[in-house]
Sequence to fold (184 residues):
Amino acid sequence: MSEPSPNYVACHCQHCNGKIEFDANQLEPGENSQVPCPHCELETTVSAPKKNIPPVNFQFVNEIMDADVQVALGVDLSNESPPNYRAAVKMFTGAAQKGHADAQWNLGVFYHNGYGVEKNLAEAIKWWRMAAEQGHSEAQFRLGAAYSSGEGIVEDHVEAAKWMQRIARQGDARAQHYLAIVFR
Fold:
């Protein structure tokens, strides 16, 4: 019986984050091994993948998954080390398309900061507006702040005050401070 062809995989050093490539056929699936990092020469742990997992069909996931679960998964994915922003965006997008305000808020943040997507202030504003119209307080504040500064949208202090008044009525001190300055 012939040797299987090499199955090269990569992981990152725990010390210097350098890339370490190795033949996964040398380890049992899920087995850990200590190897010297070729970059910093410190011992680091590598492991062979447990099994080949087929790619996730996010369209199917979106159809069957509850929006709250998608948001929770999106948050978990964005808090991984390292964060998996691209997968988080897919989860948030699925839930946002179902009308979930927290997902819309998160998509706005991701587009505003360029997490897992190309930075796009107009797209951030679009998602924040959807969440804000549902009463999402952070989205209302960010939308008001965007109108006030003209970030990603045409500067409009009347529109900024409208959104700040909505959130100020909910007790938000930042919005109340903004309105106190505007109307003094």
